[in-house]
Amino acid sequence: MEKLKNTSMLTDMILFVLGIIILLNPWGTMETLVKVAGIVLLIAGVVGVATAVMGKNFNMANISSLVGYIGALIAGFIFFTKPYVILGWLHLVFGAIIIIHGIINLIRALNMGAPAMYVPLALAVIAIVAGVLVLTGVLSRVLIQVIGVVLIFNAGTSLYMALKNS
């Protein structure tokens, strides 16, 4: 349980810093992140294709893996060359992450019991509502800045609750 808590706190710290960076340079940060993801997918695809093709026992399992690696190559190429296409879908990913973190925080708050749970419970509900707003694109005009603010808020809330439960 301690390892899970440490991992969660590390994730929250990373999300907090990412939120600050997004807030300071929203489109540049997002474009860079998408391009880096594209490079990672391209490398994984090249290594995977090379491994699958050069394998001594080339069989159906290798063919299905090969299809996945080719998919990674195609996705990596799109991520790297057309980052704004990917950015059009990004609010769905961030919205889902924020909602999931909010639900986890809600469960943590409910486990705290009264009266300690009231502030964390309110913060968790706000995070869930913010996640839904990000997910649905209601805030699309300022979505990138909102994602940054919500990531900071959500990670800060998670860190607050983790430290409070220590």
Name the structural class.
mainly alpha
Q: Based on the structure, what is the oligomeric state of the protein chains?
A: single chain
Number of helices: 6
Low-confidence stretches: none
What is the straight-line distance between the termini? 12 Å
Query: If you average the pLDDT, what whole number results?
Result: 85
Task: Explain the overall architecture.
- The radius of gyration is 20 Å and the shape is globular.
- With 166 residues, the protein is mainly α.
- It is built from six helices and no strands.
- 87% of the residues lie in helices and 0% in strands.
- The chain has helices at residues 2-24, 26-54, 60-81, 83-112, 118-136, 143-164.
- The protein has one domain (2-164).
- The model has no long low-confidence stretch (mean pLDDT 85).
In short:
Helices cover 87% and strands 0% of the residues. The protein is an all-alpha fold and 166 residues long. The protein is globular, with a radius of gyration of 20 Å.
Key terms:
166 residues; mainly alpha; 6 helices; 87% helix; 0% strand
Topology of helices and strands:
Blueprint: H1 2-24, H2 26-54, H3 60-81, H4 83-112, H5 118-136, H6 143-164
Helix pairs in contact: 1-2, 1-6, 2-3, 2-4, 3-4, 4-5, 4-6, 5-6
